[in-house]
Amino acid sequence: MTEQQIRLVCRQCMDRCRAGETWPPDLAEFVALISESGANPFGLTVDAVMEEYRRWRNESWRYDGSDKYPWPQPVLYHICLEMRTRGIERQMTQGELKRLAERQLTKWAKHVGNGMSVPPVRRQLEGAKHPQGPTPIERLKQEYERRKAAGFYLNLRNDFVGGNFNGNRI
Length: 170
Hints:
- There is one protein chain.
- The protein has 170 residues and is an all-alpha fold.
- It folds into three domains: 39 residues, no CATH class; 81 residues, no CATH class; 37 residues, no CATH class.
- 57% of the residues lie in helices and 0% in strands.
- The protein is built from seven helices and no strands.
């Protein structure tokens, strides 16, 4: 652990003591405090990620794109974009977003621990452009309208009323 992480754990222990928690924390509580202290190569906690996510969501309208936002660390760019994408797709609650932030932070810590680097902040490539002109369903509708005007489609409802599809009434 770095000196900064030890200070953070001590500060968290003091905060817990002020809040009326028992002192000293048992081993499980201490391990939980260490994991919350950002025992990762980025020095980030889940709460710090959530705070940056909220700040980015509230201030992103001021910038031309997410890549122009002043990210404190490149890993936050990747984590926050993933949180926004999944959060919108799955309509996640605040608690679910916090768990997602924790999983993403762990994932990126493992990547860096395995020798990979965090990619720099850069704009995503644009998707393929759709060709101009009618969509496939619009083309089908045009074909239907053309055939209907040419008389290819019979008014089957009137012919079928009597129970005989051939149009011969009984």
